[in-house]
Amino acid sequence: MAAHRCNIFMLVFVLCGLTYVFVRADIEDTNHVKDAESVAVDIARKANIGASLRSTKTEDQTQAAEKERQWEAETNPADAPSDNKADHVHDTMQNLDSRPAPYAKDQTQEAAEEERQWEATEVKEADHVPDTMQTPDVPPPTPAKDQFQEELVIRPLHSGDIYASFQFRTMWDTDFLRGSKVSHYRLFPKSLGQVISKFSVRELHISFTQGYWRTMQWGQPFLPSPPGAELWVWFQDTVTDVDGAWKELTNVLSGIFCASLNFIDSTNTVQPSASFKPLGLGNVTDQRFLRYAVLPREIVCTENLTPWKKLLPCGSKAGLAVLMKSEKLFHSSFHSQALHFRPVCQDWKCKSTVWELRQTLNVVFDLHTSGQGKREWSLFKMFSRTLTEACPLASSSKVYVDVTDNPQGELFELSPTTPLLSQAVVLGDRRTYSVYDLTNQATFGQTRSLNMLLRWRAAESGDMLRPLLHGERYVAGYGLQTGEIHTLMYNNHPYRAFPVLLLDTVPWYLRLYIHTLTVTSKGRDNKPSYIHYQPSKDRLRPHLLEMLVQLPPNSVTEVTMQFERALLKWTEYTPDPNHGFYVGSSVISALVPSVVAMDTNSTRECPLFSSFFPCKEESSYFMRVYTEPLLVNLPTPDFSMPYNVICLTCTVVAVGYGSLYNLLTRTFQVEEPSPGLAKRLANIIRRLRGVPLL
Amino acid sequence: MVENNVDTTGYTLFWFHRLMIFYGLLFVVVEGLALLDLGVSPYAGDVFHETPLIIYFFHFVIDYAEIVFMMADALTAVALYLAVKDYNKTVFRKQKYALEAERYPLDCLELIRTPKEMYYIPLKVAMFYLLNPFTILSCVAKSTCGLNNAVIALFILCTVKGSSLMSAIFLALATYQSIYPLTLFAPALLYLLQRLYIPVNWQRSSFWLFTTQYTFMYLGSLCVMVCLSFFLLSSWDFLSSVYGFILSVPDLTPNIGLFWYFFAEMFEHFRLFFICVFQINVFFYTIPLSIKLKEHPIFLIFMQIAIISIFKSYPTVGDIALYMAFLPAWNHLYRFLRNIFLVSVVLLACSALFPVLWHLWIYAGSANSNFYYAITLLFNVAQILLVSDYFYAYLRREHHLTHGLYLKRKDGSEATLVLK
């Protein structure tokens, strides 16, 4: 009964919120709400992008969204027993019971539920109930202008590796767009803020990754990133010279991050039409304002980490950032640091927008092999540091440890134990986490330091959930003349087909032949419903291929395309030309059907790692998969002999010219034998003497 | 629609051919058509460099591509057969008049060509074209070079037949396809003037009248073709993508020519200079050759075609096949050729070594680019020697026809001819 009452409350809450928002949207002239709606609509539309890609008028979108929302609200009571709509407002222990358990392990969780105390959910419930009463009139107290949150998620992987993911979120409440010059910075890094306001950046996503994320062994990362450096930027629609701004921005960022981003030029920049939609609020969906570039060759190391750490309000002095010591971080199987800047709603009503800066750092440690076969880890083992305090500027500072597979403690033992548990829906899966709140002094105990220790009991961990979608890529063929790029996309869902967007950026020196494109799944032709192909221009721009492919359930879809390798000018080769040339990863973006209901309320308080990609539908979640980058060899000239070649070829041309010139200018004459030397001398003397010549 | 045309089994064969015929393969035309199907301009990328008319043509006949290429070759052979037959008649008539006028020295009788030996020449020319391995290779690889050859052969036929309008149209078509046949304008004009008994004389108004007329026909039809191309795709992109591509040589894929390795190894600040030098080199010979050979325009055509096929930016074996087809027409020059044995051996050896060294470089990895480059150099030297040898022999025969075959020195001993 409690569940139903709660649901009704939530319903009232949602309806009130919506009416308020719509009334405000009509009255106020601000675009914020429209922004929010259109973005939401856009994300929903990704599934059927083939139909129309151009942004329609925001009014239409708002109306459409309105209808959709109302429809949702109406249907809410109807489907209460099954995938409960209201649970996207709050995950409560109560409505867990009423939902059919998607996986067997949920049942084991239920047993644990009784004993454990769930983190703050009840309390929040209580907090929000009064809200629903007074929603339209009195907004909740506005939060502090700038905010900083930090969190660390540790997930033991099934392969025996440990995945540690740091996320730092800085909220920046400012309005640099309206021409007001921002000179005062509190928590937001000034170096970045100035750049962003100078180049009128709407969204900026940058990642530096060393190593390749092995989806089949490790599952999905919270934030995917391709090997090397990736940069994509949405500019404000006020920017007129987007290419110029992009060029300058890459150079500035190159300086800020000590990275070779200045190698981004027109030959590796593309404007994807569908794959990279804005992740924050915004009604700009015109790809003219988007630039995307990948540098697969970029090596990530300490010099990139240090400037990245400096952007944090506490630097690496306090909080979670003290763990980031490069000697340990770079001694890992996978290292990825990223920075995402985007506009988001300030509060749950989305009256105004704030700028969100998310800094993430993902590391996979292979402690299994380095620890002499003993499967145990601790913070100290991983980072050679322990936690002693939260960052004083942080409004929240938490460490999450994934204990989903270990509800009874039969697999591993975690110490010190924490009474707090939290549940979050991440990537279509409901996970349970032990939470250590660093702002609470009790967490640190008597030793004044927190060093989590996880000791495995069982030798084998349970079965990993196979990722529903993953991709592979390789080059087929032999020789240096031609080749074939194969991209494999796996849909591991047992019965649901879903569409994916495949984005391929291939440098110009691999000349793709689009007419050799084949897409096959289950041995049959699979015609893409949408293809956007931009052929390359030599030394000017790369190939861009985007297509929407429907992946049948439980299948492998293979995309192949032939290419020809060009011979470059000798100055265009890298210093190690026989190492090969890198081709950036393919990007597979998809709305993957979810087994558990996804959380569609993006403004709700939830762990940072679960709230990056905005979610529009409960039944599916957005996922991006990067394939391996390719290493392709090109035919090389002999670099040691430019002079020889110039001389030899010029000689051949001169032979042609000379022989023709000879024949053209000379005439045939009877050869008169020339007299010998003695005779000629004698003739000279005779001429001097005036005697007849011989 | 497109997938059916290029059968997958033929790909291995195709990639092998790609080595000798880099430029203008049907494969690329199919790519252009596929781009059009996707709604992208074929000239948006840097793969397709054929003219819009070719794309329009293949839009209709793509399903019968093999037959089209075979028919193009057959057409070339027939046109060459008829042209050479007609030309031989003219040569014979001229020779008869000269004999009757007793203009030939008496000891030149053995240089006089007999109807018996001239009877099989047209057939030999046609067979030399059709049975040339280079032609067969070009046809099997479905290179659009076969079509260009057909256009040039038709141009020669119309010129020899004296139809100035058709000659101008076909010449314009050949120029439109690849700029270089522009240099054939001079020999065609000379031949047509000769046929109409108009002397090349700057003072004569009839000379100017005909020249202007022919130029206008040529430029007019060229203009029509370019405008037609514009209306087919409604953009001027093709100009830079077709002609800019030929002239500025951005693509350095190995072929049998001289350009690719030279510009791959070129220092960046000299690139423009050498591109200019190499391109001017192709067009440069037209004026001196026209002056030297103004009495012999058909031989001039042969010379021009040969020079184009050696010095053009993306030569293919199909171009070589066209000028080699003319060699039987000059078999009366055989006695004056100096190093035909050496040249033919080198040409044969190089043709055999091309695929071998290509394989060693690209597939086996046991050789590097210099090996293949060396063979292209040798092949081109052999071609140059072949052409200049024929030129020499032609000039020498003409010299003997005026000065007698057995020349004597002043002291009465047997003399040797030298170029001075």
Automatic annotation (TrEMBL), chain A:
Keywords from the named record: Signal
Pfam families linked to this entry: Gpi16
Keyword Signal: yes
InterPro entries per the UniProt record, alphabetical: PIG-T (IPR007245)
Compositional bias segments (type: Basic and acidic residues): 56-72, 82-91
Region (Disordered): 52-120
Gene Ontology biological process terms in this record: attachment of GPI anchor to protein
PANTHER family cross-referenced by the UniProt entry: GPI TRANSAMIDASE COMPONENT PIG-T, GPI TRANSAMIDASE COMPONENT PIG-T-RELATED
Leader sequence segment: 1-25
Protein source organism: Oncorhynchus kisutch
GO cellular component: GPI-anchor transamidase complex
Name of the protein: Phosphatidylinositol glycan anchor biosynthesis class T
Protein origin, superkingdom: Eukaryota
Automatic annotation (TrEMBL), chain B:
UniProt keyword list: Endoplasmic reticulum, GPI-anchor biosynthesis, Membrane, Transmembrane, Transmembrane helix
Membrane-topology annotation of the record: Multi-pass membrane protein
Pathway entry: Glycolipid biosynthesis; glycosylphosphatidylinositol-anchor biosynthesis
Gene Ontology CC terms: GPI-anchor transamidase complex
Main localization, broad class: endoplasmic reticulum
Keyword Transmembrane annotated: yes
Highest taxon of source: Eukaryota
Signal peptide start-end: none
Keyword Repressor (UniProt): no
Any one of the GO BP annotations: attachment of GPI anchor to protein
Compartments reported by the entry: Endoplasmic reticulum membrane
Family annotation (InterPro entries): PIG-U (IPR009600)
Record-annotated membrane-spanning stretches: 20-41, 53-84, 179-198, 218-236, 242-263, 270-291, 336-358, 370-392
Pfam families: PIG-U
Family named by the database record: Belongs to the PIGU family.
Record protein name field: Phosphatidylinositol glycan anchor biosynthesis, class U
